[in-house]
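quick one
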Amino acid sequence: MKEMWDKRYAQTDFVYGTEPNGFFKQQLLKLTPGKILLPAEGEGRNAVFAAKASWEVYAFDSSIEAKKKAENWAKQNNVQINYQLSTYEEADYPNDFFDAIAFIYAHSTTRSSNHKKMLQFLKPNGTIILEGFSKKQINNSSGGPKNIDMLFSEEELHSDFTACQDIKIWAEDIELYEGIHHSGKASVIRLIGQK
Ligand SMILES: C[S@@+](CC[C@H](N)C(=O)[O-])C[C@H]1O[C@@H](n2cnc3c(N)ncnc32)[C@H](O)[C@@H]1O
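structure w/ S-adenosylmethionine:
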């Protein structure tokens, strides 16, 4: 898997574009800046946007090519990001540290344990933002994993975030314009809530 991502990111172009994810941008701009964690952040489009919006940004990804590209993108934009080469399993931050966590297309085979682990690092009342592909996306060709177990259902996400308050989760069919790998009609799930 890591090799696949390194190969994908080794090209000069930003495969998910340089603009932040639209839902992430919309939700982030409603919040007062503080510390934010972006797990599986890829090439840094969301991290750089958040840093430019005055957030103290922490991000990680298991791809070295993603890290290099993200740090270079931050440099070009004259912002600082704390980006670690790390898997979910290796990720380690102080408990109750972040004001917000955003999971943007952060799909993996260990979804539930990843989500629960990341919640430890979020402050009480901290904000959770998530957008990812729903299981319906298996019928679309606009991107995402081809393994249905890695795609999200509303029930699965409710169960991952059951310990949190005020969680809203909904499915939407949207048009994605996020580089060559997220392009066209897409079935997504969105989540906003607080720990
Ligand atoms: C679809 S990309 C999303 C990138 C970014 N969040 C964005 O929206 O542009 C998924 C990312 O997950 C990363 N990834 C996959 N499995 C991971 C794991 N176990 N730990 C950390 N990162 C992982 C990949 O390297 C890839 O960058």
